[in-house]
Amino acid sequence: MKRIIKYISVLAIIIFFSGCEEGLDPVFYGSLNPTIFPSTEGEFEAYTMEAYIPFTFRWGYGQNGNWYYTFFSPEEGVVPLYDFPTDLISVFTAWGDGATFWESKSRGNFIPLIAQDPGHSHFEKTRFVTRITKTIADLESTDVITDENFRKQLISEAKVARGWTMLFLLQLYGPVPVIIDAEQVGNAEAEGDLTRPGREQFVSWIVSDLEYAVENIAKVAPDYGRFNKGLAQTLLMRLYMNEKDFVKAEAVGREITTMGYSLVDDYASLFREATERNSETIFAISCDPASQGRGTDGNFNSFVWNIYPDSRSWGHVYAASWKFYDSFDPDDARRELLFGTYTSADGTVYDRTNMIGAVIEKFPPEGPGPYQGNDFPVARYSDVLLMLAEAINENSGPTQEAIDLVDMVRERADLDGLSSADTGSKEALNDAILRERGWELYFEGHRLPDLIRHGKWPSAVDGIPGKNPGPSYYPLPQYAVLEGLVQNDGY
Predict the structure, then answer these.
(1) C-alpha to C-alpha distance for 219 and 241, rounded to whole angstroms
(2) What is the distance between the alpha carbons of residues 76 and 107, in angstroms, rounded to a whole number?
(3) H helices then E strands: how many in the chain?
(4) For residue 282, what is the enclosing H or E element?
(5) Of these four, 91, 204, 293, 482, which has the most CB atoms within 10 Å of its CB?
């Protein structure tokens, strides 16, 4: 089993301390004695691995008797959050909203999510920010660590976790109250203050964390599955794209192009277990084929449970909308991972007459068990190339360089270069880049931020039955609003 998964599996059971749950109090785990742990460099490394828990690919994690979802949970992670509401995914109504809220997300209607409890709401990750603030301070102040490069590596990993968490929170809710000053941890007044910071201030905190990591984290991680320099740079680029600071986004993108990444020849190979480690994947959530969905297991890929329209799945939850399926060029190699027709083991034929949308078999079931070991790519070089093309276009208009970057991605998909109609103006090229990002990155959890950035939310879902979009931000949970948090507009 992979080392990073071992760390997280153990930490999910025994991790550190205990605490209350009001305001921005940190949520701590377990029962280890902080007066004697950590006391060695190895223990500090294990201590830092707590930062990875929200970035695991599993149902969720338990703490203090409560259950919380990760950012990559198949039920409440990036695919349901960022792909469900958009033109990529059909509306799923078979189970009703229930506890999963899948129907409301797939409709693009976030109003019912006001009622989410702490276990379902990612707003609770504000407490995680507080926790990692404490971790960073402990790493900075300890005399146990004597190797300063090792110290900087661990601090960088913690700062990637904190910065990435704040980026998620920013995209989901806008700026939210967090504690990034270790002196305020344990201060009742500070932890009870739910005043929302200004956007510029909130963004500056994320930039500070990610820039530190870019300067100090290893280009090649100590263990596969741990954060690396390429991830930190990609997250920083995404932040600048999110804020439409295209000058800084272009600069970071150009730096990433010097790091030795390249597109693989075969698109489908990116998502298969045998070829998941490659020149294009900058960072992926490492999944273990031995994990079978149990609480003590490491990461596992469970998408197979929700992609088929027959008894092979729990339900055809993840189905590409017919509008999106039809948007592909028939010769596009990327559409080969979408099935417009499907024949079940008993010979039943499924098509547009009896499926809510196309089958998405981007992560093919290849392992012996019902859960898969396909790693989930979080940062890929093709994503960077398309972001860079967009940033260059925003800064300089439809240049040949920007066009060539898009055409690199299209060539890998067996397509011709962009047409003259796609490149005649800045607006036309931006529209072409947005379409290309959908075809390239579907089912990887990028679509909603892309549509919002391009001003295409909610118009992109026009013509898809059942879509009923509302505000672009998710609502803050009512329990936090009752404590004094200001709700987002539209709710």
Answers:
(1) 23
(2) 15
(3) 17, 9
(4) strand 281-285
(5) 91
What's at 254, amino acid-wise?
R
Local confidence band at 293 (pLDDT 50, 70, 90 cut-offs): confident
Beta bridge pairs of residue 67: 62
pLDDT tens-digit map of 96-115: 655 457 899 999 999 999 99
* Nearest alpha-carbon partner for 137 in 18, 31, 48, 37: 48
Strand partners, 350: 342
Q: Which amino acid is at 335?
A: R
User: Domain-by-domain residue ranges, the chain?
Assistant: 3-263, 381-461
> Same fold for the domain at 3-263 and the one at 381-461?
yes
Q: Which two tokens stand for residue 18?
A: 């205990």
C-alpha–C-alpha distance, residues 230 and 83, integer Å? 24
In the CATH hierarchy, which fold is given to the domain comprising 381-461? 1.25.40
Per CATH, the number for 3-263 is 1.25.40.390
Residue 229 amino acid letter = K
Tens-place pLDDT, residues 426-459: 999 999 999 999 999 999 999 999 999 999 999 9
